[in-house]
Amino acid sequence: MILDGKLLDTARLTETTASVKGDTIDAWHSEKHCDFSANVQAVMHPDGLPVWTSNVMPGHLHDLTRAQELDVTDTP
Fold first, then answer.
1. pTM of the model
2. b/e sequence 6-15, b meaning 16+ C-beta within 10 Å
């Protein structure tokens, strides 16, 4: 099985959240991509057939963090 995350471009949405440092940030803004984005996680067979996909989530957190939140990995 393959776990993959994808950031999708979005229009600006007005939702704020606290960063890991405690600052108020825009939940849909990805610092990695310097743009507004949504995050979708997927578990797939090696041939690319999807087995499971997550709901669309704000793009401010890293893919692995999202996968851990969704309890998709065995990583604590």
1. 0.71
2. ebeebeeeee
- Sequence ranges of the domains in the chain: 2-69
CB neighbour class for 24 (10 Å; exposed up to 12, middle 13-18, buried from 19): exposed
Task: Say if CB 39 and CB 7 are below 8 A apart.
Answer: yes
Q: Could you list the mean pLDDT of each consecutive 10-residue stretch along the chain, which spans 76 residues?
A: 83 83 88 85 89 86 76 63
Asked if residue 65 lies in contact with residue 59, where contact means CB atoms within 8 angstroms, the answer is: no
Q: Report which of 46, 34, 44 is spatially closest to residue 9, judged by C-alpha positions.
A: 34
